[in-house]
Amino acid sequence: MVLKKATINDVAAHAKVSIKTVSRVINNEYGVSRATKDKVLNTIKRLQYVPNKAAQGLRSKKSFLIGLIYDNPDKFYLSDIQSGILETCAINGFSVVLFPCDYQDQKLLNKVREFILRTNLDGLILTPPISDMKDLVQKLQEDIPISIISPGLLTENKLCVSSDDLKASYDMTSHLIGLGHKNIGFIKGHIDHGATQYRYDGYLKALADNNIDFNKENIAQGDFSFDSGIKAAKKIFNKKDHLKITSIFASNDAMAAGVLKVANEENILIPEEISLVGFDNSPTASQAWPSITTIEQPVKEMAAFAAQILIDNIQNKVNKKPVSKIFDYELVFRESVKKIK
């Protein structure tokens, strides 16, 4: 026996509301009370009604597609970003189209615009370092609704989510100082990521507030990749006065893992000789030996929120208000740090 699929008419009849009201609930439009909305949603669930997105798209001129633009070497970061966005979009009846790119591509704006037209997107989500490209962001905002994850140095975007990188870095550096570390090496992240500057500034501020002189020789440039962490570690360890350094703060866990690899190769004991901390609390940090002290950012939750505010903005034309949220962080203490006298 073939079961008949529920229709919008069935939902309206069972919920004792008009078809228009059911349509408003499905499209998350204004003008429906909380009680009525809950009644309709419960009826939809009970009848297992599945809205026809193709038909909805034809009526509303929406594709129910959101594009995710990214160029980031950290696969764990991207995994959390994608998971948060995909789950939120699925709940709301949207699908995600991925667009990996080279942020340094001179034709990036044209390629993104072609991508938008080719897939008929309803909105875009941008991630670092694309989200830090002010001119590109402003031009794309003229074409399509945009939500930005970790906007870095950009603060005027209508829809954005971020974490307080400066304060997180400040607190981690202060933690090291509190354990007796005064000569702290620092590995900077990608030069085109806004978060890189915030994390570096937090480190510098903690040194200044604790009356510790800044030594530029303790700084190495990375790009958030494992290989760049290896290069930065070799640069620091090859300096004549590297033995004075008692700890290293890498701007993300991938680079911290690179430091750990070099330390093992050069028989430098972590944390007995040098303490090590990272940033992001990726699986790498917990799986390494010794496990790496780091900073937890709720990347998946940030991505989910970015997707939700974008979908709300797309569906609620009469209420396109700016929405932003700064997520909290947490210091995660593990085995890679030691108190010194």
From TrEMBL:
Keywords: DNA-binding, Transcription, Transcription regulation
Domain of life from the UniProt record: Bacteria
Keyword set includes NAD: no
Domain HTH lacI-type positions: 6-60
The UniProt record lists the keyword Manganese: no
Protein's name according to its UniProt entry: LacI family DNA-binding transcriptional regulator
CDD domains: HTH_LacI, PBP1_SalR
Gene3D superfamilies linked to this entry: 3.40.50.2300, lambda repressor-like DNA-binding domains
InterPro entries in UniProt: HTH_LacI, LacI/GalR-like_sensor, Lambda_DNA-bd_dom_sf, Peripla_BP_I
GO MF entry, a single one: DNA-binding transcription factor activity
One Pfam family recorded for the sequence: Peripla_BP_3
